[in-house]
């Protein structure tokens, strides 16, 4: 009886109820949010640590909800994944990102995050090829960011998808490196050209001698395998210096810029070409 009583109180916990209601609303409204034009793609620069110039822009989705305000992807991407909406949403994001990139100078690429479910959907590779074709974007300028969660099962479908696209020139980055299983087997078996070291190794309370040594080791691996190593979450000049010294070639973080709307991304590039 005691256990039942406890679970009842937690069932009627007002915060839980509010969270559930909010989740349901997000679920219901997400499908139509694209049509209502509430979603936008923002772009965060990834910088050459040697030259300070922009190498890539990472596409990060934003939802400007008429009542709830700005929703972060961490709140609605998981809902999109659970409901399957991620497939439609993901195709839209890739198409928007490719269109934006086609307006930039040729040496600048765009990076798009892919959820495992998108990759396993039928015709996944074709959706990306079509987005490239429609935007008239060279496949070499598209990079797809995936996390290790992709490899927990069904590696065959993943391998087929990655081979199909990388044979056309699309590149792949291993995102959030260091937070999951970080098996070097993935780097060996799949065609990655970039590793993104998670920001928990770069800034925040856990950064120190140990994380420094880990970044150094990953950077060394990268240079020997001819892969770029990106340090994520750089917030201070000290962090720029330490990841550079550790051997990272590229950096991303609030120190350089937050994610910005496409017209500001274009302005950052114009400023660079004027230098
Ligand atoms: P992520 O792919 O690891 O993206 C980096 C996140 O770190 C972004 O958060 C970015 O704004 C944030 N960030 C960048 N620099 C700094 C920094 O210096 N300090 C701190 N504290 N944070 C920094 P955001 O945009 O909220 O996205 C969160 C996550 O949502 C992304 O993590 C990604 O997993 C997912 N996501 C975002 N856009 C998409 C998308 O279009 N498709 C999919 N499937 N997932 C997305
Ligand atoms: Ca990412
Ligand atoms: Ca990341
Ligand atoms: Ca992340």
Ligand inventory reads: ligand C2E, calcium ion
Q: State the order of secondary-structure elements, H for helix, E for strand.
A: HHEEEHHEHHEHEHEHEHEH
Which structural category fits the helices and strands? alpha/beta
What value does the Rg take, in angstroms? 20 Å
**Helix proportion range:** 40-55%
Strand percent estimate: 15-25%
Sheet of most strands: 8 strands, mixed, barrel
The number of distinct β-strands equals: 9
**Spatial separation of the terminal alpha carbons:** 73 Å
Shape: globular
Number of helices: 11
Low-confidence sequence ranges: none
Strand order of the largest sheet: 1-2-4-5-6-7-8-9
Q: pLDDT average, as an integer?
A: 91
Describe the structure.
The chain contains eleven helices and nine strands. It is of the alpha/beta class. Strand 8, helix 10 and strand 9 form a beta-alpha-beta unit. The termini are far apart. 36% of the residues are buried. This is EAL domain-containing protein. It comes from Altererythrobacter rubellus.
Question: Which helices and strands occur, and which strands form pairs?
Answer:
Layout: H1 2-11, H2 14-33, E1 39-48, E2 54-65, E3 69-71, H3 73-83, H4 86-102, E4 109-113, H5 116-120, H6 124-135, E5 142-146, H7 155-166, E6 171-177, H8 184-189, E7 194-197, H9 209-225, E8 228-231, H10 237-246, E9 250-251, H11 262-274
Parallel strand pairs: 2-4, 4-5, 5-6, 6-7, 7-8, 8-9
Antiparallel strand pairs: 1-2, 1-9, 2-3
Keywords: Membrane, Transmembrane, Transmembrane helix
Organism: Altererythrobacter rubellus
Domain EAL: 23-273
